[in-house]
Amino acid sequence: MTETIKIFDTTLRDGEQCPGASLNHDEKLKIAAQLEKLGVDIIEAGFPIASPDDFRAVNEIAKLVKKSTVCGLARAIEKDIQTAFEAVKPAKKKRIHLFLATSDMHLKYKLKMSRAEALVRIKEMVSFAKSLTADIEFSPEDASRSDPKFLYQALEIAIRSGAQTLNIPDTVGYSTPTEFGNFIKNIRKNVRGIKDVVISVHCHDDLGLAVANSLAAVENGARQVECTVNGIGERAGNTSLEEVVMALKTRQDFFKLKTNVKPKEIFRTSRLVSSLTGFVVPPNKAIVGSNAFAHESGIHQHGILAKRETYEIMKAEDVGVERNRLVLGKHSGRAALIARMNELGFKLTQNELDKTFERFKLLADKKKEIFDEDLEALVVNEISEATAEWKVESVEVTAGTGKKPRAEIALRNSAGKIFKQKSGGTGPVDAAYSAVNKIVGEKVKLLEFRMDAVSEGIDAQATVAVKIETAQGRIYSGKGSHTDIVVASVKSYLNALNKIIAGKERLKVVL
Ligand code: KIV
Ligand code: ZN
């Protein structure tokens, strides 16, 4: 029988941890629902001790998700573990994932702990977690730079104390495929009791090797892969879920393994995560980039026409790509909108549906053809603005050759009060942002600004993604869409500012 590789998704924990990717509560719930639909085995929903917001999100996800296991992360500290347990408690299937670094570098400089003390801590904390719930995962952080003999000892203690999954992280993305494969092979050879537990891997992409390292580990006996949608995560990111899943599927002849992920849900999940985090997927990104299935060169096109397999190893449809399918227009009613939203996988509340329908009607007045991408943008605007402190009331700009760019902006706060400001700038967007700054009063630096068309055609909506940095050096991303590019620019900026105002100050822990 073909063995199954468990897919452990950490988009909502390691992915959300990366600078600028912070998600609000509703956004996390929407992603969790889609991850379950995608078929991931385990959803690492967050780090509950980090903030009350993180706790609440993990707890709500635990109530919502039925098929996937819901996991909460904890340091090897009693309070963290207890909090993680309380957060995942309502889940049908729950897991606590606790970690403690085992490399001398981390022990000496970060934890200020001896090797002997670390072994005692692992024993006590894994046992404590096990007293709360059955499914326990233990990670020796920075495993790939740990002394193997000490690591084997730590892993044996974790197994004896009740861990059922041992996750081997390449925390700083330092390893290489042959080395990491051998590392896993040696763990299987040298750790007593390892045959009774699942070996998992968690690779970072600092050298661009996270997927290759994960697959090398799988070839050597790892049976769980930790990954994130679009590969988002700390620094250069984590192992990309879609790449691992499609490599295992496309090269089933080589790996002889399968996953429970439904490939047709991959593209939709990627879009949702990109829209909600504001992290744009590069066009050349494997599997989900906009060019991943495009064939521009004449030689390739000729080959494809003669026989698709000459240049294509996967079909775009396999991962759920449906390009710009025209769905609705000005005369489409509520029922048609609801039906298409369901097909697109958006589970909206009645209130969200009402608001999205209003937005849809306004858009249909401006734009003849409404594509799936437009609907996604509408929903994303709705989800991110629902609980926002500031919303756009009106935007007026004057600009052009020989004119001094000016903007007049009106914003509405959550109490319903409207504030207006005027400002000049180097261009209409700069003037608009400067007027917004006068109203909101946050001191930030604009780090990135990127504009794309949501769909095809001259009347397409624009989507703007920004990254801003606070005086304290924290980075936030924002995204907004509109048929008017200046309005889209203001919406995305405000989306990022609203995340700062939501005040999601987190516990500062180095993972
Ligand atoms: O990268 C890492 O080591 C982690 C652990 C918490 C698993 O994210
Ligand atoms: Zn990590």
Structure description:
The chain is α/β, with parallel strands linked by helices and 511 residues long. The two termini are 38 Å apart. It has 18 helices and 18 strands. α8 runs parallel beside α9 (210-219) and α17 runs parallel beside α18 (485-501). The protein folds into four domains: 3-277, Aldolase class I (TIM Barrel); 293-320, no CATH class; 334-384, no CATH class; 387-501, Double Stranded RNA Binding Domain, CATH 3.30.160. The strands form five sheets. The chain has an eight-stranded parallel β-barrel with strand order 2-3-4-5-6-7-8-9, surrounded by eight helices.
Share of helix, binned: 40-55%
Which class of secondary structure composition applies to the elements? alpha/beta
For the secondary structure, the number of strands is 18
- The total count of helices amounts to 18
Rounded radius of gyration (Å)? 24 Å
- Name of the level-1 CATH class of the largest domain: Alpha Beta
The percent range for strand residues is 15-25%
